[in-house]
Amino acid sequence: MSEAILVSTRKGLFEVGKGKSEWAVKDAVFLGDNVTLALHDPRDGTDYAALNHGHFGVKLHRRNKGGAWTEIAAPAYPPKPEGLNDLDGWGRPVKWTTQMIWALEPGGADEPGTLWAGTMPGGLFRSRDRGESWDMIRPLWDMPERNKWLGGGADIPGIHSICVDPRSSRTVRVGISCGGVWVTHDGGESWAQSAHGMRFDDGPAGVADDPHTQDPHMMVQCPAVPERFWVQHHCGIWRSADNAKSWQEVKARPSSFGFGVVVHPKDPDTAWFVPGIKDEKRYPVDGKLVVTRTRDGGRSFDVLDKGLPGSHAYDIVFRHALAGDETGDRLAFGSTTGNLWISEDQGDSWQTVSSTLPPVHAVRFA
Amino acid sequence: MAKVFFTANLRRHVDCGAMEAEGVTVGDVLSRVFAIQDRLGAYVLDDQGALRKHMTILVDGQRVRDIERLTDPVRPNSEVWVMQALSGG
Fold first, then answer.
1. Across residues A168-187, what is the average pLDDT?
2. What pTM was computed for the model?
3. Per-residue pLDDT tens for A6-45?
4. Is A57 close to B54, i.e. CB distance below 8 A?
């Protein structure tokens, strides 16, 4: 069971651990710097942290097990061909430079040292040497459909979810806001769209359900039953039971809007969400912060609020800021208001770890 | 040789004291500096080699104009300052 959590915030990376009885912040690194995401690689114990310096660009740091943090290479875009009129779905020129590391995942158990990184404005990268060097996955970047991808809340498109299939490391699915879901079965050589069934609430037919512009805020795959997926989408919650070939919508109360989703590692019917009022408002319904949990594949949802603020709470939980551990018993989430909560009973009750952190971007069990 | 100075805020991330380098354009001079301290380049320039959005460069007190290709001229005794582009209050 994980005893440590990496919390990436606007003002540093916080390491949270369990003491004799309570969880507490144990250490802080990169204080003052904008840490957008961290990864603990369970294969070798290495930690990674992605920073986004306002002036100096996106950087990546690595800490070997028991070692100190050192800067390593960040994914970098190849030279943009001279004269290329490369426009995004809004018709705006695409800047070929890493503007955010928005997803960071280990490769399969059979490929030690392999990492995947998803970035804004939409490039997918792979490292074979623990982040010493990165290669852009050109076949995905060169798909003509990329020019339909749209910025969501972040103005430019980005890859935020990477699911390496436990049955074959050569099968990888990525979630893009807003570019749907893409799948490769040959280690990135060829790609196909895989967001069929998702749709926006609004817009003309053929546009609202165009898979190439869907906005899956976060996608997760059940490790024990890998044909099962969940997506928290901009317009609701979707699930798939057929390897993401098709998606079906489910409805949750008090809202189906949110950013993050966690699936139980062994039970694909169990998943957690943090709902908010839909897109133009984005705060908890009635100012009451709750977690929703389904145990029956989305037919019904429990509303979990024990230990969470019941009034005047305006916390928003970003897509990487809700996490579960490898047992499915422990969950944690952090908010834009600097709160961090943890549950050790699958969400039935929550303890406040801190209410004074900087705005939280991402939470991960280590 | 031109003399190149970097904003103190950069020194928190990369070792970059004042350096001297040859070159007839800003791009020439910087490429020689970055050849010595290779991590520094990615802090100042983006993936396409253009000046990062919130950075600016002064040559003998004048802000450079070509921020994409860095072709502004540099004289042998010029002072090149790599700074943050600060705005607001």
1. 98
2. 0.96
3. 999 999 999 999 988 899 999 999 999 999 999 999 999 9
4. no
Look up the domain containing A265 and give its range: 86-358
CATH number of the domain that residue B19 is part of: 3.10.20.30
Range of the domain at B30: 2-84
Burial A222-248 (b: 16+ CB within 10 A, else e): bbebbebbbbbbbbbbbbbeebbeebe
Tell me which chain B residue has its CA closest to the CA of residue A57: B43
Residues of A in contact with B9 (CB under 8 A): 55
- Count of structural domains within chain A: 1
Q: In Å, how far is B79's CA from the nearest CA of chain A?
A: 21
Q: Is residue A200 domain-resident?
A: yes
**CATH at A219:** 2.130.10.10
Q: Around Cβ A6, how many Cβ atoms within 10 Å?
A: 23
Amino acid identity, position A149:
W
Pick from A284, A320, A324, A323: which is nearest to A305 by CA?
A284
Chains A, B: CB pairs < 8 Å: 40
Domain count, chain B: 1
B13: chain A residues, CB-CB within 8 Å: 53, 56, 59, 71
Mean pLDDT of B51-79: 96
